[in-house]
Amino acid sequence: MSDSNNSLTVRDNRTGKEYDIPINDGTIKAADLGQIRTSDDEPGLATYDPGFVNTASCKSAVTFIDGDKGILEYRGYPIEQLAEKSSFLEVAYLLVHGALPTKEQYDAWVHEITYHTFVHENVKGFMQGFRYDAHPMGMLMASVGALSTFYPESKNISDPENRHIQIVRMIAKMPTLGAWAFRHAQGKPYVYPDNELSYTENFLSMLFKMSELRFEADPRLVKALDVLFILHADHEQNCSTNAVRSVGSSQVDPYSAVAAGVGALFGPLHGGANEAVLRMLRRIGSMENIPAFIEGVKNGNERLMGFGHRVYKNFDPRATIIKKACDDVFEVTGVNPLLAIAKELEKIALEDEYFIKRKLYPNVDFYSGLIYEAFQFPPEMFTVLFAIGRTPGWLAQWLELTQDTEQKIARPKQIYTGDRTLQFVPASERWK
Ligand SMILES: CC(C)(COP(=O)(O)OP(=O)(O)OC[C@H]1O[C@@H](n2cnc3c(N)ncnc32)[C@H](O)[C@@H]1OP(=O)(O)O)[C@@H](O)C(=O)NCCC(=O)NCCS
C-alpha cells in the first residue's frame, strides 16, 4: 500500500476493483499499471503513447526546460549566462562532468580534446569513397559509426576510463568529420586539424583554409559559431537524444549510439527546420509580399517556419540569443537581405492575434539559418553544425544512461492489430 496522499486510486470499471498506485516525481510507474487486469490470463493494463508525448523515459540531471516560462538550463546554469560568458568546450565539460571545471581540469580537457582531433588516415580514405554529391549528414553518420571499428575497446562501456577517452575522441573528431564532409562536396582537399587553434577556430580552418599557412577567422565569427554550438549542446529528451539512449541501452559502443543520434537529427522534423526558414524567406522575396504571406498562414495554407515549438509556449530563450549573434555576424559579413524580411515577419507576427492566441514565437531556427548562410554554408551543412554542437549533450546523456541502475534495454510494448491463426499454404500450392 502506498501513502494515500501521494498516490493515484484507479477503479477498473470492468471488474469494480480499485488499485492504489504510488506517485513519485509527478509520475506513476507504467509497470504498476500491469497489476490492473480482468483475469489472470489476460495481459495487464498498459499505456498507449506514440511519440512519448506524456511518458518519462529516464531520470536525468543534465538539462532542465520549462517551456511555459522559456527556461533552458544545462546542469542548473541558465543558457543565457553560458552563451554570454562561457565557451563551447567549457559547456561540453559541464554537460559531461556535471560541474564546471577548475583551471587545471579545464586546461587538461582542452588539451585532450585538441590532441584527439586527428582521425586515422583510413577514415579519410573511405570518406573520399563517397559519391561527389553525398549529403554531408550521411557522410557524418557513416563515419562516426565507423569509428567504432577503429576503437574496438569502446565496447567496454562499464569501464569509466574507457568511457572518458571515447567521449573525448568523439567531441574532438566530429568537427574533423563534418568539415571533411563539407570539403568533399566541394571537391576540395581535406584540411588536417591545426592544434594551435581553438576548437571553433580549428573547425573553421578545416572548412575554409586554402593555400594560406594558417587560416585566420574573424574573432567575431568564431564567437558567434561557438555560441551557436552552446545553444545546441543539449535539449533533454528530444528525438535524437532518445535515439542515442535507445540504441545505447543495448550496451553497444558510444560511436554506434551517436551515429543513431545523427540519423535522427537528419530528419526534417528535427534538424531541418532552419533550412525550411531560408526557403520560406527566399520565396517571400520582398517586403511587399509579407502581408499576403501572413494571410496565407492565418488561413491555414502554410506555416510560418521557425515559429512555434512543442515545448516553448512563451519564448524560446535560444532565439533571443541568436538574434543578437545575427547582428555580430552581419557586422563582419555584410547584412543578408533576407534579415529585413525575417525581422518584419517577426514584428508582424508578434502583434497579430492569430500568433498571440496560439503562443507562437520565433524558435531557435528562425535566425540560425541566416547566420549559417552568412558563413557561406550550404543548407545541407546546417544539420552537421547542429550535430557537432549536440555531441556533448548526446554523450552526457549516454554517460548518465550507462550509470543509471534503473535503466533497461529500450523495448516498448505494442498494440497488435494484425491477423492471427492463419494457416500457411506453400507457394507451390497457392500459385497453382
Ligand atoms: C514546432 C511545431 C511542430 C510544434 O507543433 P505543436 O506543438 O504540435 O503545435 P500544433 O501543430 O498543435 O499547433 C498549434 C496551433 O498553432 C498553429 N501553428 C503552430 N505552428 C505554427 C506555425 N509555425 N505557423 C502557423 N501556425 C502554426 C497550428 O496550426 C495550430 O493551430 P490550430 O489550433 O488553429 O489548429 C510547430 O509549431 C511548427 O510546425 N512550426 C514550424 C516548424 C518549425 O519551426 N520547427 C522547428 C521547431 S524547433
From TrEMBL:
PROSITE patterns attached here?
CITRATE_SYNTHASE
Q: Quote the pathway field.
A: Carbohydrate metabolism; tricarboxylic acid cycle; isocitrate from oxaloacetate: step 1/2
| UniProt catalytic activity | oxaloacetate + acetyl-CoA + H2O = citrate + CoA + H(+)
Q: Which InterPro entries match?
A: Citrate_synth-like_lrg_a-sub, Citrate_synth-like_sm_a-sub, Citrate_synthase, Citrate_synthase_AS, Citrate_synthase_bac-typ, Citrate_synthase_sf, Citrate_synthase_typ-I
The answer, when asked if Ion transport is one of the entry's keywords, is no
The annotated active site, in chain numbering, is 309, 365
Signal peptide start and end residues: none
Under Pfam families, the record lists: Citrate_synt
Question: Per the UniProt entry, what is one GO biological process?
Answer: tricarboxylic acid cycle
Q: Which UniProt keywords apply?
A: Acyltransferase, Transferase, Tricarboxylic acid cycle
Mind telling me which GO cellular component terms the entry cites? Answer: cytoplasm
MF terms (GO), sorted A to Z:
citrate synthase activity
Source species, domain of life: Bacteria
- NCBIfam families of this UniProt entry? cit_synth_I, PRK05614.1
Tell me which family the UniProt entry assigns to this protein: Belongs to the citrate synthase family.
- Protein name per the record: Citrate synthase
Where does this protein come from, organism-wise? Answer: Nocardioides marmorisolisilvae
